[in-house]
Design a protein that fits this description.
The complex is a heterodimer. Chain A is an alpha+beta fold. Chain A has helices spanning about 115-125, 130-135, 205-210, 240-260, 320-345; strands spanning about 5, 15-20, 25, 30-35, 40, 60-65, 70-75, 80-85, 90-95, 105, 145-175, 175-200, 220-225, 235, 270-300, 300-310, 315. Chain A has three domains: about 5-95, no CATH class; about 100-320, no CATH class; about 320-350. The longest helix of chain A is centred in the C-terminal third of the chain and has 26 residues, at about 320-345. Chain B is α/β, with parallel strands linked by helices. Among the domains of chain B are: about 30-155, Diaminopimelate Epimerase, Chain A, domain 1; about 160-185. Chain B is built from eight helices and seven strands, in the order αβαβαββαααααβββ. Chain B has helices at about 1-35, 45-60, 80-90, 115-120, 125-140, 140-150, 160-165, 170-190, and strands at about 35-40, 65-70, 100-105, 110-115, 210-225, 230, 240-245. In chain B, a hairpin with a 7-residue loop joins strand 6 (about 230) and strand 7 (about 240-245). The chains are: A alpha+beta, B alpha/beta. Chains A and B meet through strand 11, strand 12, helix 4, strand 17 and helix 5 of A and helix 7, helix 8 and strand 5 of B.
């Protein structure tokens, strides 16, 4: 198995993808290359022999040899693009992008690491109940750009919802207030189609966090190409298509259910008593989507934040400051009460 | 010169004192002359009647308005609101301010009507005042209920009103709802926003509503009785309003 290094035509140093230029850039001589100008230097071309050595002592780690300095690269189970820990040389492990692991699509990073950090700080400042010391914690060096494995599902959904719709009106007659409610049996049957519902294909990425940074803008989607991985971390999927479909199906069902509920005649209130939605014609495409992962430790507990590498949308496990919440609630309650009473007295509404 | 001056000043002072005394006596006599309590149903003892009459005189003078209480054994089909308006015009005044509390024992009717400035002060609390007095009547505490009337019609200052509003439940509920909504919103956004909706991944135009059924099932009606009825109208250019009910 081989490790790919994309190198500079001018000086042969390794090159990596530059977000702003949308080109590959050499970090040493600043030469820039378009995608079709890139020369791939595989281990076969170089003198060094690269062997995948499945070390018996540490079976969970696969071992590769860095093409730049010859050091052994230790990778975690699913890493597909990584850095040499000695010379920071970006390496792409080609085998982990081949065969069943060959992605169909990718969306390139659009947000730089610096922008991602700024986005995060702006975002965390707006989290009202986050502890103040957490907001100001500047040491977020463990932020990393990652091409996350995703399954993009196209599917059709069809089914029905049924329940009761209610319309009410009230009026006054003599000494009585009368409320009349009309009840209707409501049934909606319909179908719809969905395009590229994303489900992350990695056990180490929490589904709810990944849902929080959606949606990606699919107009920038490209056919997968290994060159983009250079300079980033990437993982191959460890949740297969079938398992991911089980996450996607309830989402598609929910989409159609709410579309059906909102269709046809509208009611003042509606309650759904039963529904059945079938998902069919499911097609999955494997894709690499850009995400920045940030882990902050607060009071001994890890808090993970995700930043969409394309749109900058942020979502995460913000720590909750209970004391702040209680104090704020009490202050707000008393203030509102005082303002209401004073207002009522001044306006004479009582 | 000095002695003449002294004696004339002394004379003037004594004359002035006499005048003041006389005027105040006439004034108090006049005030006491006007009957303000008409206890035709004989709910109060003689001494109780005196204390109520004194209280009614006092607030009438203080607020330069007429405050009248009338109790009837029965009304013989007369609407208590008409009766109260009519009675006030005869025994109170036609164009000024004031308030009347009218009670009929047989029908167990109670009416509180205010006029002019007193109406403006209490127009939003007519039902409350009527109900508050009604509670004492139900418990047969007649003297207490009439004393209560003389207290309730008095306009309270800012702090008095504040205390009145503070004990009602509405501001507490408003404060609770506002707090829950604001804190709920802030806590909900704590992790970030979910912006994906049912249309995010839907293929445009792909939704097809195959069939849609809306079948009428039934109509339910709820009736809630409104206990009080308000009537308000102008009498000789002054504003007035009353609240009637049972006790």
């Amino acid at each position: 198995m081989s490790v790919n290094v994309y190198s500079c035509k001018t000086c042969a140093a390794p090159i990596s993808y530059d977000i702003k230029q949308e080109k590959w850039k050499c970090q040493y001589c600043n030469s820039e290359f378009a995608k079709d100008e890139i020369v791939e230097k595989t281990s076969n071309e170089g003198e060094m022999e690269v062997v995948e050595d499945l070390n018996a002592k540490i079976p969970e780690l696969d071992e590769y040899r860095c093409n730049a300095c010859g050091a052994k690269i230790l990778t975690e189970g699913n890493a597909a693009a990584t850095f040499c820990i000695y010379c920071r040389n970006p390496s792409v492990i080609k085998s982990r992008f081949s065969g069943e692991f060959h992605p169909r699509y990718l969306i390139p990073f659009k947000v730089t690491l610096k922008e991602a950090k700024e986005t995060y700080f702006k975002w965390i400042k707006k989290r009202f109940f986050a502890p103040d010391e957490f907001k100001t914690a500047r040491e977020i060096d463990n932020i990393r750009g990652l091409y996350a494995p995703y399954w993009l599902f196209d599917c059709r959904a069809s089914g029905y919802v049924e329940g009761e719709g209610r319309n009410s009106k009230s009026w006054r007659s003599g000494d009585y207030n009368i409320t009349e409610t009309q009840h209707y049996y409501v049934k909606r049957v319909g179908s719809s189609a969905y395009d590229k519902i994303p489900v992350d294909g990695s056990k180490s990425l929490a589904d709810d966090l990944m849902e929080g940074i959606e949606p990606y803008n699919y107009s920038a989607i490209k056919d997968f190409s290994l060159e983009y991985m250079s300079g980033y971390l990437a993982e191959k999927y460890d949740v297969n298509e079938k398992l991911a479909a089980r996450v996607m199906e309830p989402r598609a069902q929910k989409f159609l259910r709410s579309t059906l509920e909102a269709s046809g005649q509208r009611y003042q209130s509606m309650s759904i008593s039963s529904s059945s939605i079938n998902i069919n014609s499911v097609k999955a495409a494997y894709a690499m989507l850009p995400v920045y992962v940030l882990t902050n430790v607060y009071q001994g507990k890890k808090h993970t934040f995700m930043i969409n590498g394309q749109t900058g949308k942020t979502y995460g496990e913000t720590p909750f400051d209970k004391r702040k919440c209680v104090l704020f609630s009490a202050a707000l309650f008393l203030t509102t009460w005082f303002v209401t009473v004073t207002g009522a007295v001044i306006l004479g509404i009582y | 010169m000095e002695s003449i001056n002294k004696s004339s000043i002394r004379g003037l002072v004594s004359l002035w004192l006499c005048a003041v005394l006389l005027i105040s006596m006439v004034g108090s006599l006049q005030a006491a002359e006007k009957q303000r309590l008409f206890d035709e149903a004989e709910l109060l003892s003689a001494s109780e009647q005196v204390t109520i009459q004194v209280e009614l005189d006092k607030i009438s003078r203080e607020l330069s308005a007429d405050f009248i209480i009338v109790t009837k054994k029965k009304l013989d089909g007369t609407n208590i609101q008409y009766f109260a308006n009519d009675f006030f015009e005869k025994n109170g005044n036609k164009n000024g301010s004031g308030a009347i509390l009218a009670i009929s024992m047989q029908e167990r009717d109670i009416n509180f009507t205010a006029f002019g400035k007193i109406y403006d002060d209490h127009k939003r609390r007519l039902d409350k005042i009527r109900a508050s007095i009604g509670k004492h009547l139900t418990a047969k505490r007649y003297h207490q209920s009439f004393m209560h009337f003389t207290e309730l019609v008095r306009p309270s200052g800012f702090f008095g009103n504040f205390a009145k509003v503070a004990v009602t439940w509405q501001p507490w509920v408003i404060a609770l709802v506002v707090t829950l909504v604001v804190v709920g919103f802030l806590a909900y956004n704590h992790r970030g926003e979910i912006t994906v909706g049912s249309s995010t991944y839907a293929v445009p135009g792909a939704f097809n509503l195959i069939s849609s059924e809306d079948r009428y099932l039934r109509t339910t009606t709820t009736k809630t009785k409104v206990t009080s009825s308000k009537s308000s109208g102008g009498g000789g250019g002054r504003s007035s309003g009353g609240s009637s009910g049972k006790f």
